[in-house]
């Protein structure tokens, strides 16, 4: 197994009670494309991404079913599974062929908080296309952030077991560390861990073609009546733009672009004080970060140490 077994973020899987409403929102409004369905399960692709799908929606009790990451090959998948078992990590599904779109080879396990993680390789690439200028739809899934009541434990667990590296930390003089930005490739972050009152999805972020398309997407969502919870603005950590919205079931989702890339030979993780207005928004165009703004992404407590039915 390579020293860093995870190559990238593949998809985020959500279950919701009002499946039809959620599906219509993510396709018609948000801009994803339904590529497959299977009896109350929809697989949604981003037009600019070679991933078979970036969001899976399932009809059921509200929860985040799983987070999926990629590995380089089946050998790395098997080696990672063997190492996790040796370390006492609870396996949900042993390595095997996948029956989801694009096939592949993978397995599932619980992280230290109890959410389900999937790691897979050899998934067939999807025929995708270049997103055109001014086309306000996602290019790909950018990153996923989760809430944890013990983010430091989560940070250390993902570093030890999955090889994630810390890029930067958001800190408060009064509350300590608030968010850890973690990377598995040269993107500043593909995953992040926020301090929250319970384990849940904080937000899923989708990359737009550029600043013009990001702003057009933000305006499109506002005109559609979607709830803007924070933004538009530009973060300091990661240097990426942000516009956060709620989907119909209260999950926070983000349009972003221009996320920084990391030079592994020169990068040193930084501490960014959230009381400095430039930390949260370099432009000053969004509402200031506050407890009320932060609470919009706490989400409902997730279903833990219980695998989804599919």
From TrEMBL:
Region (Disordered) residue spans: 282-310
Domain of life: Bacteria
Biased amino acid composition, Polar residues: 282-299
InterPro entries the record matches: Glyas_Bleomycin-R_OHBP_Dase, Glyas_Fos-R_dOase_dom, GlyoxalaseI/FosfomycinResist, VOC_core
SUPFAM superfamilies to which the protein is assigned, alphabetical: Glyoxalase/Bleomycin resistance protein/Dihydroxybiphenyl dioxygenase (SSF54593)
Domain VOC residues, every copy: 8-122, 140-258
Gene3D superfamilies named in the record: 2,3-Dihydroxybiphenyl 1,2-Dioxygenase, domain 1
Residue spans crossing the bilayer: none
Cross-referenced PANTHER family: GLYOXALASE FAMILY PROTEIN, METALLOTHIOL TRANSFERASE FOSB
UniProt name for this protein: Oxidoreductase
